[in-house]
Design brief:
Length: 172
């Protein structure tokens, strides 16, 4: 059930709609009456293929690492550690997964993904390359998840992620 209202550090936001559910949380489009934001609520549902530590601490750490690496991503506005909620910039646009289903991922988006991969690799990181984690806005590719992991060849863009950008087989 989607809540009508949620708070971040005591400030109330009206929930417009559910944007999606990931392995770490639910993301909602919310408003305070003046702007629209993404409110991520961390969840603790089991995930058979991924092991988590403290999710809210990981989000904060990974945001800092991604920002330092120069990855284009939504700004984090506020964190409510006790409620395990993050308020971040809402970036409107199609997700790469939807474009891939239509075979409409433009070459310039692949070029931008390769550039992000170079930035991430230079920082010793891998992004979660699954195409639901990327949005196009005004011709620019944004990584909308804050998850990153230490670099490994197995999970890099060219060995894992790119295959989901050419049509989207089911997640493994």
């Amino acid at each position: 059930m989607i809540p009508d209202r949620m708070t971040v550090n005591g400030k109330e936001y009206r929930v417009i709609r559910l944007l999606g559910k990931g392995k770490g949380g639910y993301s909602y489009l919310v408003t305070d009456g003046t702007g629209e934001y993404v409110l991520k609520q961390i969840h603790h549902e089991p995930c058979s293929y991924y092991t988590f530590g403290n999710k809210i601490e990981a989000e904060l750490r990974d945001y800092d690492r991604l920002t330092a690496a120069g990855i284009r991503l939504p700004r984090m506005y506020e964190t409510d550690v006790q409620a395990e909620r993050i308020l971040k910039e809402y970036i409107d646009g199609p997700v790469i997964a939807d474009l891939a289903k239509k075979n409409a991922v433009e070459p310039r988006f692949f070029e931008q993904a390769w550039e992000m991969s170079r930035q991430a690799y230079a920082a010793g990181l891998n992004l979660d390359w699954y195409p639901t984690n990327f949005i196009v806005h005004d011709g620019l590719l944004y990584y909308i998840d804050y998850e990153c992991n230490l670099y490994s060849d197995e999970w890099n863009f060219e060995n894992w992620g790119i295959r989901y950008w050419y049509g989207t087989p089911e997640a493994e």
